[in-house]
Design brief:
The complex is a heterotrimer of chains A (319), B (346) and C (294). Chain A has 319 residues and is an alpha/beta fold. Chain A has 2 domains: 228 residues, P-loop containing nucleotide triphosphate hydrolases (Rossmann fold, 3-Layer(aba) Sandwich); 70 residues, no CATH class. Helix content of chain A is 34%, strand content 21%. In chain A, helix 8 links the parallel strand 7 and strand 8. The longest helix of chain A is centred in the middle third of the chain and has 18 residues. Chain B has an 8-stranded mixed beta sheet with strand order 6-7-8-3-9-10-12-11, with helices on both faces. Chain B has a 4-stranded antiparallel beta sheet with strand order 2-1-4-5. Chain C has one domain: MetI-like (MetI-like fold), CATH 1.10.3720. In chain C, helix 5 packs parallel to helix 8. Chain C is elongated and about 80 Å long. The two termini of chain C are 41 Å apart. Classes of the chains: A alpha/beta (319), B alpha/beta (346), C mainly alpha (294). Chains in contact: A-B, B-C. Chain C: InterPro entries: BP-dependent_transpt_permease, MetI-like, MetI-like_sf, OppC_N. Chain C: Pfam families: BPD_transp_1, OppC_N. Chain C: It is found in: Cell membrane. Chain C: One of its GO terms (cellular component) is plasma membrane.
Chain lengths: 319, 346, 294
């Protein structure tokens, strides 16, 4: 089966001059139609940059290399006009702060209707009917009244639902989610996660879900790709990675979880801090913090490999 | 003559006396309505009572609008409460204990590590500011700043002269912790102090907080939306909902046998990090309501799975189930009229 | 508890380069700002060295050499309606024009910033009192207010500068108030309050350093407005009196020649434009350079 998303050797470099910042370095990732992959990582790991590359949302000064194909389309080769059509129609995105992504001076209903008409045409009435239908699908109570709300009149959870409705307005094949539940309260977060999962099944969407929270990844994803300093260090089925992480960083993240601390008076931590992207070590980026480090790790970047026949890990000493 | 050291703070009431006792704390913020509209107010904190024992960590959890951050700001007196008393180690704050002396003993760490440091001061100057205000000579205050930097894991020779924007989020939060400790406080209020940090950094800072608590004999109020973190840090837990205390008790009692349905729902909402334990239905529907118009009766009644008519009429008191474990729920209050309430003992 | 109190004296720590050094180096990297600054410096030098630079006396006229075009031998930039050398008058004009344009701004900065910072930090009633008074002045268009004040006080250099100062105080006060109100809400101010510091200490140590920069940037942008208003006042006969050379006044007296020799008549305007654009570009660059996170 041809993948819905096929990212090969993606690299994104910000800034020029003496210290360019390689935010993403050689990311390769493929998603089957209807598959949900979580990109898990901390700030600066390159997870959001990778996600934004799929819509070419970077500033013009960023240097992007590699290839991205979505549903057979070469994203890098799209003309500006084709790109505008591609955004929203083939691939749409939801953000951490829907309040910033919505226009405060138009009602939510108008904004969704406008998105519908831009991509599919039709009359105002048809577009509005479509918006109402979408509001029902994302389970916004008293949908008809809510369509006439302005963004500031809605709570964070409702707004994120409205954002999802807008993202689905043109029947995209791929949904990109950039930490959509991070700013939400716990009781609302789980509602949105369940909604994403449900809609994903209903529409057969391929979803890339960026998060820093393993718990969130476990709730929505089929597979997970763990990123560190711009590279994928481990990738595999969510259950495999959570039960037996192979990369020392992934293991460290899992071990550091406070949920596991029951009875202990200290948390297990990964020593040190993530490296400065403008000044990465020559070999494995994790080597300076790693307990299993060897000479090889300091000179050579370990390639992604599948030592156990399932999943992939970029480490010379996995396990 | 400027002093070289701060005068030491003494324990007055002995270990059994609570360090902090809060009674009937109220803070409403007026909301601008129309000229002829009704005068309305955000009931940010609406009658909160609790106490903090010496040397313990009281965890405070709840969602946005529950009043946990307002409570923190009231306790540090960044705003004046509309009503209520705060008694610190036996002395009423504002009466027997002056605000200035109280503030030396109670310090706060904020969530936003960048906004809580003056961008134009080096970090040693930021840390030394408090002691200087309290009369410590500049040189001694700077020395103290260096000691504290070393104590929070930042090599003073490398970091003391830096500006906040030159540090990472985790490093800045260590500076904020050092700054809070510079006055040798007895109570430190941590308002979402680790929430903005990456998980691996969060774990390091939590360990640091535990070490500092032990080494300096501190008492913490640890406010967080993350129940897992609170479970790790706290000895006792207070759950807040819409400006009120919903439940308060020993950590294990609250986490293992929650008495308030809101606590139970909050616990069930936490992601499990186990794909085998995925849920099909969310524990609660809807968003936390707006604290401008809290519903009559129990404030949780519109979202509660066990709601009965009586809940819409009666405002449940914070009732003790067992000593040291109380919940504001009619189901926990005998003779309340709720069908699940315990029978009145004959 | 006090184990830390008896500490050895502080070791000299590595210091980051100071804030202003960082601002300086960021400015130096921006060619537009450097160019604008160079123009400003050149104009100031021109004003200071006018007697050395000007080929002729600025008020020496010749009725037979009126309104010569640019490039006339002996009159490289032509001559005005009284046959005076334009180049010399433009050079001398820089003195009064820059004086009138620049002086009101720092004076207004002193008063406006003080009012605004007090209002912003105090909040409540004090804020309402100061800011509503400021609003009364702000309600008048600045040109109108300057003309009205100068007209009432009578023409003259001092009165014109005083009017301009009064015009700018409310504008600077409003910016100062909004910047201070923003800073006041930040957690580091709360942290300072929680440490028991008094309001004056907090304003001096934590507020000033963070608000003066943005207010200063705004004030530099007013210099260009001030230049234009000052010229306007002179143009209307409310500022400098003839025969003193001042660009605005020159523009006025030359307007009769606009059909005879438009290029010469436009020269004072061109200098006003260059000066105000330079101050504006410099102020924009300064704003960017003062953002530590850039």
């Amino acid at each position: 089966m041809t993948p819905m998303i096929d990212i090969r050797d993606l690299s994104v470099v910000f800034g020029r001059g003496p210290k360019p910042v390689p935010a993403v370095d050689g990311v390769t990732l493929a998603l089957a139609p209807g598959e949900v992959v979580a990109l898990l990582g901390e700030s600066g790991s390159g997870k959001s940059v990778t996600l934004r590359s799929l819509l070419r949302l970077h500033p013009a000064s960023a240097r992007v290399g590699g290839t991205i194909r979505v549903d057979g389309t070469d994203v890098m080769a799209l003309s500006p006009r084709a790109l505008a059509d591609f955004r929203g129609r083939t691939v749409s995105m939801i953000f951490q702060e829907p309040r910033l992504a919505l226009d405060p001076v138009y009602t939510i209903g108008d904004q969704i209707a406008e998105a519908v008409r831009r991509h599919r045409g039709g009359t105002r009435a048809q577009a509005r009917a479509r918006a109402l239908d979408l509001f029902d699908r994302v389970r916004i109570p008293s949908a008809k009244r809510r369509l006439d709300n302005y963004p500031h009149e809605m709570s964070g959870g409702m707004l994120q639902r409205a954002m999802i409705a807008m993202a689905l307005s043109c029947d995209p094949k791929v949904l990109l989610a950039d930490e959509p539940t991070t700013a939400l309260d716990a009781t609302v977060q789980i509602q949105i996660l369940l909604l994403v999962r449900e809609l994903q099944r209903e529409y057969g969407l391929s979803v890339i879900f960026v998060t820093h929270d393993i718990g969130v990844a476990a709730e929505v994803a089929d597979r997970v790709a763990v990123m560190y300093a711009g590279r994928i260090v481990e990738e595999g089925a969510i259950a495999d990675v959570i039960r037996s992480p192979q990369h020392p960083y992934a293991r460290g993240l899992l071990d550091a979880r406070v949920e596991l601390a029951g009875g202990r008076d200290r948390l297990i931590t990964i020593p040190g801090a993530p490296p400065d992207l403008a000044d990465l070590p020559p070999g494995c980026s994790f080597a300076p913090r790693c307990a299993r480090v060897s000479g090889e790790c300091r000179t050579t970047v370990p390639p992604l490999a599948a030592p156990l026949g399932r999943g992939q890990v970029a480490c010379f000493h996995p396990g | 003559m400027r002093a070289a050291v701060l005068p030491p703070l003494e324990d007055r009431g002995g270990p059994a006396q609570p360090l902090l006792t809060v009674g009937g704390l109220v803070k409403h913020f007026p909301v601008k309505g129309g000229v002829f509209g009704p005068r309305r107010a955000v009931q940010a904190v609406d009658g909160v009572d609790f106490s903090v024992l010496k040397g313990e960590t009281l965890g405070v959890v709840g969602e946005s609008g529950c009043g946990k951050s307002t409570t923190a700001r009231l306790l540090v007196r960044l705003m004046a409460p509309d009503a209520g008393t705060v008694i610190f180690d036996g002395e009423s704050v504002g009466d027997a204990l002056s605000l200035r002396d109280y503030r030396r003993q109670v310090q706060m760490v904020f969530q936003d590590s960048y906004a809580s440091l003056n961008p134009r001061l080096t970090i040693e100057d930021s840390i030394a500011f408090g002691p200087r205000v309290h009369g410590v000579a500049a040189r001694a205050a700077t020395g103290r700043a260096h000691d504290l930097l070393a104590r929070v894991g930042l090599e003073p020779r490398r970091f003391a002269g830096r500006y906040p924007h030159e540090l990472s989020g985790g490093q800045r939060q260590r500076v904020n912790i050092a700054r809070a400790l510079a006055l040798e406080p007895r109570l430190v209020i941590l308002d979402e102090a680790v929430s903005a940090l990456d998980k691996s950094v969060e774990a390091q800072v939590l360990n640091l907080l535990l070490d500092l608590k032990r080494d300096f004999g501190l008492t913490y109020i640890f406010i967080s939306h993350d129940l897992n973190v609170v479970r790790f840090m706290a000895d006792r837990v207070m759950v807040m909902y819409l400006g009120r205390v919903a439940e308060i008790g020993a950590r294990d009692a609250v986490f293992d046998a929650p008495a308030h349905p809101y606590t139970a729902a909050l616990l069930a909402s936490m992601p499990k990090a186990d794909p085998a334990e995925r849920r099909d239905a969310p524990p609660l529907s809807g968003d936390p309501p707006n604290p401008i118009d809290p519903p009559p009766g129990c404030r949780f009644n519109p979202r509660c799975a066990f709601v009965e008519d009586v809940c819409r009429r009666t405002d449940p008191p914070l009732a003790a189930l067992v000593p040291q474990h109380s919940a504001a729920c009619l189901m926990a209050s005998s003779g309340s009229g709720h069908s699940r309430a315990p029978e009145i003992a004959a | 508890m006090s184990v830390l109190a008896a500490s050895p004296p502080a070791l000299r720590a590595e210091r980051s380069p100071g804030y202003w050094r960082g601002v300086g180096s960021r400015i130096a990297r921006d060619p537009v700002v450097v160019a604008a600054l160079a123009v400003i410096v050149a104009l100031v030098l021109m004003a200071l060295l006018a007697p050395e630079l000007a080929p002729m006396a600025p008020d020496k006229g010749s009725m037979i050499r009126r309104l010569k075009p640019i490039g006339t031998p002996g009159y490289p930039l032509g001559s005005d309606e009284l046959g005076r050398d334009m180049l010399s008058r433009l050079i001398y004009g820089a003195r009064l024009s820059l004086l009138m344009g620049v002086v009101p701004v720092p004076v207004a900065f002193l008063f406006g910033a003080t009012l605004g910072i007090v209002a912003g930090y105090a909040g409540g009633l004090v804020n309402a009192l100061i800011m509503r008074t400021v609003d009364v002045f702000y309600a008048f268009p600045s040109v109108l207010l300057a003309v009205a004040l100068s007209g009432t006080l009578g023409s003259g250099l001092g009165n014109a500068m005083f009017s301009l100062t009064v015009v700018f105080i409310p504008q600077i006060a409003r910016v100062a108030e909004s910047v201070t109100t923003g800073v006041r809400k930040l957690d580091y101010i709360d942290a300072a309050r929680a440490s028991g510091a008094r309001p004056l200490t907090i304003v001096l140590e934590h507020v000033l350093g963070n608000v003066l920069g943005p207010i200063f940037v705004f004030a530099t942008s007013l210099v260009s407005v001030s230049m234009i208003l000052a010229s306007g006042l002179s143009f209307l006969g409310l500022g400098v009196r003839p025969p003193d050379a001042e660009w605005g006044l020159m523009l006025n007296t030359l307007r009769t020649a606009i059909y005879v020799n438009p290029a010469v008549a436009a020269l004072p305007g061109v200098l006003i434009l260059i000066t105000s654009v330079s101050f504006n570009l410099f102020s924009d660059g300064l704003r960017g350079a003062m953002d530590v996170r850039s």
